[in-house]
Amino acid sequence: MSRKKRAGLDTDAVVQEAIQLADELGYDKLTLAALAARLGIKTPSLYNHIQGLDDLRQRMAIHGLEGLYSALLHAVKLDAGNPIQAVAEAYVAFADENPGVYAASLLAPDAQVPRWQELGEQIVQLISNLAEPYSLEPDEVIHWVRGFRSMLHGFASLRQAGGFGMPIALDESLQYMVKTYMRGAQPQR
Fold first, then answer.
1. How far apart are CA 181 and CA 183, in angstroms?
2. What are the pLDDT digits (tens) for 5-46?
3. Are 18 and 60 in contact (CB under 8 A)?
4. Which parts of this chain does the entry mark as a DNA-binding region (predicted)?
5. pLDDT tens digits for 132-181?
6. Which bin fits 160, alpha (ψ -120 to 50), beta or left (φ > 0)?
7. Angle 32-69-30 (CA atoms, 0-180°, nearest 5)?
8. How far apart are alpha carbons 104 and 62 in whole angstroms?
9. Could you tell me the CA-to-CA distances from 124 to 95, 154, 171, 188 in Å, in that order?
10. Which 8-state DSSP code applies to residue 156?
11. Can you list the domains of the chain with their CATH numbers?
């Protein structure tokens, strides 16, 4: 028995609408019922395009990681003189501008989904490369990447939640935070 698909609706359109809905409502409030209502279809009709909520979230994560990687790579190319600061600013801007898909991209990639795994590895490698001038040991690089990501995620999350109320420019705080973090990575003499 073949199912009838709504004209003009395909998997990409479903994922894009889910991303917009997650941006508006919050990633944690995204449901198939809400998405179907937004698309003007019945919830079971979504299964013509996706395999369920987990599949949708996986597709959103891949989309998010593609966007994040593109933004970070662009930042590195744009500001070769200070790529760490450029990446920090691009990361926070991406999270601000894409809250739903950013939230989707936070999950550790599923090793069973090659594209998801590949994108996660590309982002880790791009950020790891930023640490090269600091002559860190391989394990230290992993710690450095985790710390850098945690710092940026914390800043972006607090910014999105309106958690910064002091009268100092947030961009200045981000610059200060990154500079301070990088001083800790300086080779010890």
1. 5
2. 455 799 999 999 999 999 999 999 999 999 999 999 999 999
3. yes
4. 31-50
5. 988 889 999 999 999 999 999 999 999 988 899 888 899 999 999 999 99
6. alpha
7. 15
8. 8
9. 17, 18, 24, 24
10. H
11. 60-185 (1.10.357.10)
Residue 179: other Cβ atoms inside 10 A:
13
Place of tokens 């917009």: 20
Q: 40: burial class by Cβ within 10 Å (0-12, 13-18, 19+)?
A: exposed
> Two tokens at 70?
């593109």
d(CA 184, CA 100): 32
Secondary structure (DSSP) of 137-155? -HHHHHHHHHHHHHHHHHH
Angle at 122 between CA 125 and CA 72, to 5 degrees: 85
